[in-house]
Amino acid sequence: MSSTVHGSVMSPGMEQLAGAVDCHVHACPHINARSVDALEATRAAAAAGMRGIGLMDNFANSAGLAALARRELAEPGVDVFGGLIMEPPAGGISAQAVRIALDYGYEPGDGARFVSLPTHHTRNIARLEQRSASYVEACLEIPERGALPDPLGEILDLVAEHDVVLNTGHVSGPEAVRLVELARTRGVERILVPASYMTPEEVRAITAGGAFAEFSFFFISHATQIGLTHVDAQRNVTPPVPLARMHELIGVATPARTVLSSDCGVYVLPPPVEGLREFVLMIASTGFDADDIRTMVDENPGRLFKVGNR
Ligand SMILES: [Zn+2]
């Protein structure tokens, strides 16, 4: 049932978005169509009373666009932040690209608030996407033991020094568990692990290691039913995650160590605010109360990404 606020109809679940932070919004330019651009996403978040959004881009550091959106829309007060996904078009796994991203902007404090390992250029995803052997070979894999491949150690040190978020990207569960351990020993305090495909044991290991597990609307949505272009012309279908499985994994992580995000922006999904609203309702329906939801969609991402504390 919808309720009325200031004479306009409010959809169910909107009250849970007041103060929310969606750290996973794909509203930057892309090679496939978007539902909204970065400024539209910011205005929509402001209208919903949200505190922040994080722009993610597989092709470029998004901190500059985030800084522009924050300046342009200073009045609504949404804290828009960006960062670097170390995909090849964005400079790849390069300490120099990370160093630039961390300082990139118009003024101090504008720089990247997250550094992510590759998403699609991981051997884990390249194999799932049935890429060629030479393509897979050129992608990142975290070894089971021994030192990290260069220059990942240096990059982790930069992340620790700047106290920004390390996102483990789309490596496999066992690789993410090892990365969390190694990053912690190098002093990285803020770690976010996309966890929708992990086993309960892996989720337990990464959250016990001090990382947050991220679950996104995309994986339970109809976007998993069609092939989409992500980083090049090849269309790939993302395997769906049953809602019951997501519920189980959140139960293992506990709301205190969980971040919920939309991962919306692609044209077939609703715009990010609507995606997040639907997601929050779906997760709540599995048995999490309003306080749990607030922890996962507001408090945790807000603290992790230092929303409003620049
Ligand atoms: Zn994404």
Q: What key phrases describe this protein's structure?
A:
single chain; 310 residues; alpha/beta; 6-stranded parallel beta sheet; 3-stranded parallel beta sheet; 36% helix; binds zinc ion
Quick structural summary:
The chain has helices at residues 38-47, 63-72, 95-103, 123-128, 133-137, 152-162, 173-185, 200-208, 243-253, 272-285, 290-304, and strands at 3-5, 8-10, 21-25, 52-55, 79-81, 83-85, 114-116, 165-167, 191-194, 212-216, 228-229, 235-236, 258-261.
Q: In percent terms, what proportion of residues is strand?
A: 5-15%
Q: What is the radius of gyration?
A: 18 Å
- Uncertain ranges: none
* Helical stretch tally: 11
- In total, the number of strands is 13
Strand order of the largest sheet: 6-7-8-9-10-13
Query: In terms of structural class, how would the helical and strand content be classed?
Result: alpha/beta
Which molecules are bound besides the chains?
Answer: zinc ion
Give the averaged pLDDT, no decimals.
93
Order of helices and strands: EEEHEHEEHEHHHEHEHEEEHEHH
User: What is the CA–CA distance across the termini?
Assistant: 38 Å
Q: Describe the main β-sheet briefly.
A: 6 strands, parallel
- Report the principal-axis shape: globular
Helix content: 25-40%
